[in-house]
Amino acid sequence: MMHSIRLLCSSMALASAGMVLACQPPAEQRVAGEATTATPATARVEWGMVIHGGAGTIRRKEMTPDREREYRAALTEALGAGYRVLRDGGTSLGAVSAAIVILEDSPLFNAGRGAVFTADGVNSLDASIMDGTTLRAGAVAGVTDVKNPIVLARLVMEKSPHVMLSGTGAERFAREQGIPATPKDWFFTERRWKELQEAKTAEAKPATERGTVGAVALDRTGRLAAGTSTGGMTNKKWGRIGDSPVIGAGTYANARCAVSGTGWGEYYIRNVVAYDICARVEYTGASVAAAASEVILTRLPKQEKDTGGAIAMDREGHIATPFNTSGMYRGWVDQTGAVRIAIFVE
Ligand code: ASP
After folding, report:
1. Can you tell me the distance from the alpha carbon of 170 to that of 158, in angstroms, rounded to the nearest whole number?
2. What is the pLDDT of residues 41-69, one digit of tens each?
3. Where do the domains of the chain lie, and which CATH numbers do they carry?
4. Residue 212 catalytic?
């Protein structure tokens, strides 16, 4: 079943980038995977990217027009940043990083500036990035004073012999790489503080409006990359680390497939979600849409409902954006510059 795609029709951020803001895409330009049902991959892009701003309980009736506009503008800005990198001949890795930096700097998303609070009232950030061509990867977990954890994750990949650094060690590495400590109040948002207070009074189940950010991209030379950044889950305790910085769980890319996940991290770790999707593509010949749907829409819901979603892209530019929650902030752009944004089941 192909769902219609709602488009952002305002100009703003992208006009300067020469991007086309499509309001009514021709049917053949619709991209597969825009569904919470198994959608076959029927369309492809030559190069482009897909981003997400988190899956969870996002209810249409609770979304004001102003708020929706803010989300769409932020997602559009992030796609614009990634698009410019790709258009100018940059790498998929560069596009993933550029898009995620914009989302980390927005207070709207649970990453960087808008990160949720731990039970101790601090913001503890996780991020990872992976280059599908070389299988090189970098990740940081539990950092509290790094404005853009995705940038640090990339430095771990490029400037250290390791894949994952955590806590104060990762922060020390950041200083050595010339990244200054960001004052803690940069990460304070009233909304996330309130969510912590609410979570403390209803401890039973982790909060379900999450807002992790991620990106997957395919560049002009056919290279894939993926990245994910998050504040984790509200009220997390004991130094809990989720799936987002775990290569194979929240992020994975190889030569054929790139995935970024968002959802209840414990399930994503147990099911090695990002790798499972790519392994299905590689070993079974499944389309990226079929593989992502099988994992997100069939396997995870058997274990728990409302676990989350994922974005996936293959080396032919087929994309998928399945989620088993009521919404997932998401968007994509292709070589024509056409931007599509969606939040709910469309
Ligand atoms: N996956 C993230 C975590 O568990 C949260 C999310 O994506 O909403 O840390």
Report:
1. 14
2. 345 679 999 999 999 888 888 889 999 99
3. 50-344 (3.60.20.30)
4. yes
